[in-house]
């Protein structure tokens, strides 16, 4: 098997014992949740440093992704195969490239690679509708999201489609799409972007395409692995679903959450394959669908391709990346601290339990305002976007952890409202939602199996060197970030009940950098039991 040869599926799936001879095969190359990892990443999903690059221990990067897609697509087409290249959303946010270029780099590189379609991700709204407008205006391919009503948005009206039909190898391929319904809580789409029910939207778009004679329909969603399975189970007429949002790894490798593809039965009892490819450009998904002459899928097979150093970078794109990196290189390489051990900021830990990065960031926030009568820090686990390895720490690494340019926010809040906030943090536990609360000056227990809204218990606040139960009627000084304070990630209680709020403190990245400097080069993260999971 060549490096980009057809992968033998971990779950090579034949649909029905006596399937008719196939007359059409479609290769779907796909990525999701790239998160501005324009440069190659290390094993912690942060930007590679020169030492790691020299050891050939880096993954991904837009130049390597360009080679992987280009070579595989060219080879398949030369063999007479049918190929489409899809992105399931969240190109934006996660590195200094996004901070600097705000999507203009995304447009340039995606056009150069030649994507066929992209679903809108929630982070495409991080800078409001105007942020997505840059992508929608510049892309030479359709950008779609079926459950968005953009008729009231002057920036996006008529620029983002709901569905599309691609003509591939003489066959019509319909693509429908949907974006997570909680995007107004996780990003900033504004009140002119109206979210419609995702299931109803997908169902209606599938019906419309079917009535138009399209027999091959793929959903391209930014909803998450769990919701994708619910969509397939509720909507009849899909032939496959390519998803994103949850950064889910599928396949036969260690750490995978399920098979690639994952089969889910639709309402009519038909098996529908679901595929997603982790995040950050570390893998290129390759799903191969075989259709019979009636347009029914008879086989679905594939496996994500690991984009390691064995795959060369596209020279032209690598040169352009280097050129665009020059203005931000000085900031990125600035040494700010040193640690004696890695700091784990992985999605798997920080969204479901106490994690090292959550401890460090929450402690840093609290230390910054400890002289202001503030005793509790609450940070959203989803705001922590990378780990930091041991040794010298650059500002680029810090900004990879905290890329959102959120500022420190302080306010007063009653104890009962703090408990409500913690309940919100645990309300989407099974989905590993970013709202999970990392804390300082506070201890709590979470029971994921309990009813939503009743998962938090044993909440305690710091009392000198000890702890005491939180007083529901007492008022506490709290530090968080301006995004959460405004109600982001479901923390509406902060927006409605906080008093004496000040949302314009220093950037969280600067707060973390200064804290790491203060604790010194021998610093090692330590979990201390501030969050207990039953």
What does this structure look like?
The chain has 534 residues and is an alpha/beta fold. The protein has 2 domains: 22-322, Purple Acid Phosphatase, chain A, domain 2 (4-Layer Sandwich), CATH 3.60.21.10; 334-533, 5'-nucleotidase,  domain 2. Helices cover 29% and strands 25% of the residues. It has 16 helices and 27 strands. Strands 1, 2, 3, 4, 5, 14, 15 and 16 form an 8-stranded mixed β-sheet that branches. The chain has a 6-stranded mixed β-sheet with strand order 7-8-10-11-13-12, with helices on one face. The longest helix has 19 residues, at 315-333. The two termini are 46 Å apart. 52% of the residues are buried. The model is unreliable at 1-12 and 16-20 (pLDDT under 50).
Write a short abstract of this structure:
This protein is an alpha/beta fold and 534 residues long.
Largest sheet: 8 strands, mixed
- Given helix and strand content, the structural type is alpha/beta
Strand content: 15-25%
Specify the helix fraction band. Answer: 25-40%
Distance between the termini: 46 Å
Could you give the count of β-strands?
27
Given the structure, what is the number of helices?
A: 16
Question: Based on CA inertia axes, which overall geometry fits?
Answer: globular
The CATH class label of the largest domain is Alpha Beta
* Poorly predicted spans: 1-12, 16-20
Report Rg: 23 Å
Rounded mean pLDDT score? 93
Count of the domains: 2
CATH superfamily of the largest domain: Metallo-dependent phosphatases
CATH architecture of the largest domain: 4-Layer Sandwich
Under CATH, the topology of the largest domain can be stated as Purple Acid Phosphatase, chain A, domain 2
């Amino acid at each position: 098997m060549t490096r980009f040869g057809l992968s033998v599926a971990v779950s090579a799936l034949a649909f029905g014992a006596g399937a008719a001879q196939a007359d059409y095969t479609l290769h779907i190359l796909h990525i999701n949740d790239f998160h501005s990892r324009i440069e190659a990443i290390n094993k912690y999903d942060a930007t590679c440093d020169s030492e790691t690059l020299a050891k050939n221990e880096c993954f991904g990067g837009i130049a390597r992704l360009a080679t992987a897609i280009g070579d595989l697509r060219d080879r398949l087409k030369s063999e007479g195969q049918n190929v489409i290249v899809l992105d399931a959303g969240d190109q934006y946010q996660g590195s200094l490239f996004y901070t600097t270029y705000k999507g203009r780099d995304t447009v340039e590189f995606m056009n150069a690679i030649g994507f066929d379609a992209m679903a809108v991700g929630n982070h495409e709204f991080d800078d409001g509708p105007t942020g997505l407008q840059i992508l929608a205006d510049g892309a030479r391919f359709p950008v779609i999201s079926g459950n968005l009503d953009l008729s009231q948005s002057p920036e996006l009206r008529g620029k983002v489609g709901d569905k599309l039909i691609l003509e591939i190898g003489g066959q019509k391929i319909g693509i429908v799409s949907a974006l997570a319904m909680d995007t107004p809580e996780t990003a900033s789409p504004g009140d002119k972007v109206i979210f419609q029910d995702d299931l109803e939207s997908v169902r209606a778009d599938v019906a419309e395409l079917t009535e138009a004679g399209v027999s091959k329909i793929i959903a391209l969603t930014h909803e998450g692995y769990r919701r994708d399975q619910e969509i397939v189970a509720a909507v009849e007429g899909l032939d496959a679903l390519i998803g994103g949002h949850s950064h889910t790894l599928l396949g036969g490798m260690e750490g995978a959450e399920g098979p690639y593809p994952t089969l889910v039965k639709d309402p009519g009892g038909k098996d529908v394959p679901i595929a997603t490819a982790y995040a950050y450009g570390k893998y290129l998904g390759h799903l191969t669908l075989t259709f019979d002459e009636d347009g029914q899928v008879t086989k679905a097979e594939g496996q994500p391709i690991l984009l390691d150093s064995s795959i060369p970078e596209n020279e032209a794109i690598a040169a352009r990346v280097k050129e665009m990196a020059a203005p931000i290189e000085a900031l990125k390489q600035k040494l700010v601290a040193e640690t004696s051990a890695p700091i784990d900021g992985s999605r798997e830990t920080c969204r479901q339990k106490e994690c090292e990065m959550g401890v460090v960031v929450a402690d840093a926030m609290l230390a910054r305002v400890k002289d202001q009568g503030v005793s509790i820090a609450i940070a959203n686990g989803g705001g922590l976007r990378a780990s930091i390895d041991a040794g010298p720490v650059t500002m680029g690494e810090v900004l990879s952890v905290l890329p959102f340019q959120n500022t420190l926010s302080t306010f007063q809040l009653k104890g009962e409202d703090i408990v409500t906030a913690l309940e919100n943090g645990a309300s989407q536990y099974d989905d590993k939602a970013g709202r999970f609360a990392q804390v300082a000056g506070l201890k709590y227990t979470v029971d994921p199996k309990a009813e939503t809204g009743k998962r938090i218990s044993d909440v305690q606040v710091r009392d000198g060197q000890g702890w005491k139960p939180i007083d529901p009627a007492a008022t506490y000084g709290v530090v968080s970030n301006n995004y959460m304070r405004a109600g982001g990630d479901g923390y509406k209680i902060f927006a409605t009940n906080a008093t004496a709020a000040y949302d314009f403190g220093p950037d969280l990245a600067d707060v973390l950098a200064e804290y790491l400097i203060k604790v010194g080069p021998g610093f090692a993260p330590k979990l201390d039991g501030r969050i207990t999971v039953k």
